[in-house]
Amino acid sequence: MPDPAEWWRQAVVYQIYPRSFADSNGDGIGDLPGITSRVEYLRQLGVDAVWLSPFYPSALADGGYDVDDYRDVDPKIGTLAQFDEMVTALKAAGIRLIVDIVPNHTSNRHEWFRAALAAAPGSPERDRYVFRRGEGPNGERPPSDWTAQFGGSAWEPVGDGQWYLHMFAPEQPDLNWENREVRDDFLKTLAFWADRGVDGFRVDVANALVKDLTPPLPSQAELDADDLPDGVHRLLDRDEVHDIYKEWRELFDRYDPPRTAVAEAWVRSAHRRARYASPDGLGQAFNFDLLLAEWDATEFRKVIEENLALAASAATSSTWVFSNHDVVRHATRYALPTGIDLKAWLMGDGATPPPDVERGLRRARAATLLALALPGSTYLYQGEELGLPEVADLPREALQDPTWIRSGHTEKGRDGCRVPLPWTSSGPSFGFGTGPAHLPQPAGFAELSVERQEADDTSTLALYRRALAQRRRLQTAEGLEWAADTRDDVVEFRRPGGWTCITNFGDAPAPLPRGRVVLSSAPLSGGTLPGDTTAWLEPTD
Ligand code: GLC
Ligand code: CA
């Protein structure tokens, strides 16, 4: 019996982007009762946990990553009582819950930020954020030329010569983590949700909290040049950030079982990432290396080897991710030529080149079976179990991502992977709700609906359900042994207990290893493994 405190080490975690999952009251926005009504679906899918993207009160300047109040639910999507009902329903189905926590910035509507604006320069209210005097006699120019993640300046003036820092949208002022009150308030927030039955936290931009703002501030060019993998960066991945997570860990460990956390930290080397995942820190960190890798056996093997070694050295387990709410869905990435500029492709509404949809889905299914066979935990993004593609041709007037406006309409942003799920093949929003959805769904979603796929044994949904059930049965200790003498375009490994996973990244059929085929991502023929296919086998005796 595995230690219940270690449940997360090999968990399958399903990411729900609440506004696009299920809408219970027909206002076009997914909500918490919508999630509760679909717990049975999650149970049948076989996931161990759900990660809920932000559901806090928010003006949605950045899809909820602009939080007005960390200890409440957005009235647009529910109430605290409905949150509790959702937790109860998930628990009853044996599903744990991880919530998103956004510590780098609040929203500009947070009571602290309102107080900061109302207070004078140099006041304690302003010290919770990063205010600096602008350049020029009246502070009329920004304190530095830094650019924000979504485009434009990273500084916003407040009218009295002072500017505040926002690494993301202007509606997301950065907090000052040197301020003890900020640290204490987040501890309070974490305890608030942990006491409400939350099992873990996904920590948004975990690498950005601590910044060195000692004057003179460097230029953007100097920041960009500061790219040594182990170099000390002024704004990101500073060693001092781990002091914060030590305090969080002390709080997590006061619970039984201890609360877990996973860092979102796009750091420069896998080796730096391991520090976020240490047992006296957050415990786990997202590994986006497979998400960034090309569909290539050598690349996959290298990523897997490196991350398993790093996870072991940090006494944690690795994580595997192909899709989330920030990136082009992987069924579409794999449908496009290697090395393509995805931003430019989206700007052309996904028309040139047209995606090879069939090939993309075939590879996506193979990739998922491969990841699900690896030691560690796999994070799935809602809709990938339906093989949903990126919606590349959303009407421009429907776009919500701040990137679209902040880039001066030169970059569309991330809405194409946030289109609401199709539950049925008909209805105003394919069963998402009773009215139109907040982002329009393409007609092609009809044939990808849950309803349609539940009736088809060869569907992607059927494959995910079988894979999760088999994984539960086969998954044992965390080891992995590479097969000897495989072809360059084949990845093959064996897990403790003799479970074998083989993926053919090439075109020519590959010989199948000995054993009984448990599952394959595409039909097998003549005892061989076709191209772009993964199979799982178990020993025959
Ligand atoms: C993370 C989130 C992303 C958000 C950003 C700012 O990267 O995943 O969606 O825009 O942080 O909070
Ligand atoms: Ca709703």
TrEMBL record:
<dbReference type="InterPro" id="IPR045857">
    <property type="entry name" value="O16G_dom_2"/>
</dbReference>
<feature type="domain" description="Glycosyl hydrolase family 13 catalytic">
    <location>
        <begin position="15"/>
        <end position="418"/>
    </location>
</feature>
<protein>
    <submittedName>
        <fullName>Glycoside hydrolase family 13 protein</fullName>
    </submittedName>
</protein>
<dbReference type="InterPro" id="IPR006047">
    <property type="entry name" value="GH13_cat_dom"/>
</dbReference>
<keyword id="KW-0378">Hydrolase</keyword>
<dbReference type="GO" id="GO:0016787">
    <property type="term" value="F:hydrolase activity"/>
</dbReference>
<dbReference type="Pfam" id="PF00128">
    <property type="entry name" value="Alpha-amylase"/>
</dbReference>
<comment type="similarity">
    <text>Belongs to the glycosyl hydrolase 13 family.</text>
</comment>
<dbReference type="InterPro" id="IPR017853">
    <property type="entry name" value="GH"/>
</dbReference>
